[in-house]
TrEMBL record:
Organism: Guopingia tenuis
Entry's Gene Ontology cellular component terms: cytosol
Purpose: Catalyzes the interconversion of L-alanine and D-alanine. May also act on other amino acids.
Regions crossing the membrane: none
Catalytic activities: L-alanine = D-alanine
Ranges in a coiled coil: none
GO BP terms: D-alanine biosynthetic process
Cofactor(s) listed: pyridoxal 5'-phosphate
The EC number(s) this enzyme carries: 5.1.1.1
Annotated keywords: Isomerase, Pyridoxal phosphate
Residues annotated as binding substrate: R132, M311
Name of the molecule in the record: Alanine racemase
Active site residues of this protein: K34, Y263
Amino acid sequence: MLRRTYALVDLEKIADNIRELKRCAGTGVMAVVKADAYGHGMVPVAKKALQCGVTSFAVATPDEAVGLRKAVPEGMILVLSPVEREAYPVLIEKNISLCAFEAWHLGEIAESAKAVGKKARVHIKLDTGMGRVGLRTDGEMAEVLKVLRENPETLEFEGLFTHFATADAADLSFARIQLSRFCHWREMVLAAGFSPVCHASNSAATMALGAAHFDLCRMGISMYGYMPSGEMEPGLAKLSPALSLWSYVSHVKTIAPGETVSYGRTFMAGRETRIATVPIGYADGYRRALSGRGEAVLAGKKVRVAGRVCMDQIMLDVTGLEVKPGDPVLLLGEQNGLSVTADDWAEKCGTISYEILTGLTARIPRVYVHEE
Ligand SMILES: Cc1ncc(COP(=O)(O)O)c(C=O)c1O
């Protein structure tokens, strides 16, 4: 690794978070490792989860599923949303579970399974209120059950699932409505003689909605150490962020009052000011919205971004601090009681921690501790 700007992922923290979430769930857990495990690295995270006894995984795309199968030769891998028809054969061949919810869609999967000569594992998705994908009526459920009943050699009804829109809110009333719709369709499925693995909970419901746990809880953001939203009671689970983001001081200088820093000259020194340059920028996922607002930990203090974030560099106001080229800079993480979190970034950028973490680009090397 030639670059000293990197993300340090402590896999033991992920293991601790998994243990804590298993305690909250009281059922099986499914590790959501899509989007390169929310920026943490899909394969190392999956391997750690396997070591913790997790045997079910969720991804978003066929390529993620195929990549994960190399690290997870046995366990369940579910692609959470519908995929292109061209992807069916390879996914069926690799025992990857497909999301489906329409009769014609199941028909296509069954045809593909016949051609491959192997049963396709399917999880039927119910749209109980998320409004994204999934079946929405009893009639649609009846049609789906008919296709499943008629194709026992090609379709294995492995799972039944839904996704909550507001389980991370203080008011869980809509989540409870979604839950009752899920229970209704689950009853239809059981009455038809099927017994799929039922899963509804995301991180938020895993922590806050016990009645929604069923057979498996799908944990995403919480496994990486973050609460799904600020509306949730922090005491629901003891989580710690697994990723910290480091860089270093590449240059330090003193500027005189009236001198400016970066594009647009938005930062003008009101006094003699020490400026440290750090080689990270928006092309790394250090968001431009942090211009003039982002904070970092340097020389035992919190310091602030001066002026606009550039594509590859930022400048920090380090006035009054002993700072020299080569000094480490903590951009995300915790050191000696001082912390900068993805939630802090998110608040300043008008987004959520999910987008911050998945937005750290491939240009940032990921370095792992506690891989074994
Ligand atoms: C269908 C589905 N299940 C589970 C998750 C995990 O959610 P969270 O990261 O909030 O735990 C996601 C994330 O987007 C999802 O789309």
